[in-house]
Design brief:
By secondary structure, the chain is of the alpha+beta class. It contains three helices and six strands.
Length: about 160
């Protein structure tokens, strides 16, 4: 299995490294290809990417369709989860709750964030990932939470509950 965060750090060191990582990420998770997320930064507990306003992701109003934004938010969340989770744990999305707060009339910056303590809890747990999509003028157009179900990988020794 590829260590997503290690790959990001390795590629980000090169000119156009974020662009190259974004293309590799799309290949690994083809579902995101339609939104074409372009990573800006990735670190434990925070991921930032952009979804460009282009014809492919616009709705009938000429704004970025909210599903394309949710696609970007989910990509940011997935990369954040890979960069943040301990190697003995695994995650899967449990649900997504979002509110549409303004029209998406420009490129959208998708941000996903967690608290470090969220990943340290023992046993089966839920990790809330805060997500938001922001217009180029700083206006939040979508905000919400993606809930992840986090469990120990099979064969991992049981840790005492905290």
């Amino acid at each position: 299995m590829v260590d997503t965060y290690a790959l990001y750090r390795r590629l980000a060191a090169y000119p156009q490294g974020n662009r190259l990582f974004s293309l590799v990420f799309e290949q690994a998770a083809p579902y995101f290809r339609s939104a074409r997320p372009r990573f800006v930064s990735l670190e434990p507990n925070r991921a930032v990417l952009t979804v460009r306003k282009r014809r492919r992701v616009q709705n009938h109003l000429g704004t970025v369709h909210v599903i394309a934004i949710c696609n970007g938010l989910e990509a940011a969340m997935g990369a954040l989860a890979e960069a943040s989770i301990p190697p003995t744990r695994r995650w899967i999305p449990k649900g997504m709750e979002v509110a549409y707060t303004a029209k998406a009339t420009s490129d959208i910056t998708c941000v996903a964030e967690t608290d470090p303590a969220d990943w340290e809890r023992a046993g089966d747990t839920e990790v809330p990932v805060r997500v938001r999509g922001v217009r180029s003028d700083g206006t939040t157009v979508v905000e919400g939470v993606v809930r992840l179900w986090v469990t120990d990988k099979p064969g991992t020794p049981v840790r005492p509950s905290a």
